[in-house]
């Protein structure tokens, strides 16, 4: 091979190497890193939510850093701080409770890292601390449950005594599912909440609280209003052990509409399940991409949901994804 040919080949080779270096680093530049601070693994809803986030990140080609806070705010704050230190492109989290987020969100803001809230909302004055909130309208869910009660008991003079199993104390879904119900029943004196306690959104928690309710109130209870399916399932166990009949003697109202909730409806033990979708992953990833691309997002992205009375459960269950 002549010298000039060799030189030309080398130059060409050099150019391709250089080009591929440029292309590679460009591709790396474009791979978005998202830090996601999950609440925990307290319920079937949460498990489905985690699967959805992980799968959607994979599908979207987003590099996901994931942490599980075991339902403790301090763990979530620690995870967010570590994402700030790692200089991720976007931080998303599902806030375990509504209050106490200002300091860590100020830190993210100072570091110019945009924050997306998923699933649960927070209570902050300065709305610029986050870009958008993607999730359900828990207040509306509570109203839907309340309207179902109004309709179900419209020909019954009452009193209708409700035992409430609340979600995690201070969490948006616990606060709002309670307030939504109250909004509907507050002007109807036949409805009375005779007992209300947190079961922390877990099956064990729901069972334990219901055992105590059964001992104290027994047959006085007409309705169990459980803030999620896991607690409803725990309460069903407790009622059956106490000789009560969930679904017939005691009506059971629940939230999430998981497969477990549907199976309990088919078995006649949950009377109505208000849907709350955990499949937020795809919406989150598209929001993350839009933010990185500099697009403006709406401050609130609400998930579409419905209500399932027990008589449709058998027909709908095969289509349920969580
Ligand atoms: O209802 C419950 C979960 O924040 C909507 O958290 C979510 C709630 C859901 O543990 O099952």
Automatic annotation (TrEMBL):
The principal localisation class reads: other
Record localization: Cell envelope
Q: In what residue span(s) does the Periplasmic binding protein domain sit?
A: 40-295
Query: Gene Ontology terms, cellular component aspect?
Result: cell envelope
Q: Which Gene3D superfamilies match?
A: 3.40.50.2300
**What UniProt keywords are attached to this protein's entry?**
Signal
Q: Name one GO molecular function term.
A: carbohydrate binding
Q: Do you know which CDD domains this protein is assigned to? A: PBP1_galactofuranose_YtfQ-like
Establish whether keyword Signal is in the entry.
yes
Organism domain of life? Bacteria
Q: Which residues form the signal peptide?
A: 1-27
| Entry similarity comment | Belongs to the bacterial solute-binding protein 2 family.
Recorded protein name is: LacI family transcriptional regulator
- Highest classification ranks of the organism: Bacteria, Pseudomonadati, Pseudomonadota, Betaproteobacteria, Burkholderiales
């Amino acid at each position: 091979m002549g010298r000039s040919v060799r030189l030309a080949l080398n130059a060409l080779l050099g150019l391709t190497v250089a080009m591929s270096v440029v292309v590679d680093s460009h591709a790396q530049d474009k791979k978005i890193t998202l830090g996601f601070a999950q609440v925990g693994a307290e319920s079937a809803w949460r498990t489905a939510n985690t699967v959805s986030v992980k799968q959607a990140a994979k599908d979207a080609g987003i590099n996901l850093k994931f942490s599980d806070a075991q339902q403790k705010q301090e763990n979530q704050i620690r995870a967010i701080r570590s994402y700030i230190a790692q200089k991720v492109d976007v931080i998303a989290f599902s806030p375990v409770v509504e209050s106490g987020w200002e300091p860590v969100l100020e830190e993210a803001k100072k570091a110019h890292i945009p924050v997306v809230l998923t699933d649960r909302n927070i209570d902050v004055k300065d709305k610029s601390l986050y870009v958008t909130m993607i999730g359900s309208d828990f207040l509306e869910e509570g109203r839907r449950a309340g309207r179902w009660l109004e309709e179900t008991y419209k020909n019954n003079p009452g009193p209708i005594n409700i035992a409430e199993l609340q979600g995690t104390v201070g969490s948006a879904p616990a606060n709002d599912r309670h307030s939504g119900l109250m909004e509907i029943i507050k002007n109807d004196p036949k409805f009375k909440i005779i007992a209300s306690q947190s079961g922390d959104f877990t099956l064990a928690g729901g069972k334990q609280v219901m055992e105590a309710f059964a001992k104290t109130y027994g047959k006085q209870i007409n309705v169990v209003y459980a803030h999620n399916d896991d607690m409803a399932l725990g309460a069903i166990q407790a009622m059956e052990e106490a000789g009560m009949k969930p679904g017939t003697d005691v009506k059971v109202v629940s939230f999430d509409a998981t497969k477990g909730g549907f199976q309990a409806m088919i078995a006649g033990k949950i009377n109505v399940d208000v849907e709350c979708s955990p499949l937020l992953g795809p919406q989150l990833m598209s929001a993350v991409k839009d933010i990185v691309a500099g697009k403006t997002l709406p401050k609130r992205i609400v998930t579409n949901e419905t209500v399932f009375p027990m008589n449709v459960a058998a027909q709908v269950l095969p289509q349920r994804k969580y």
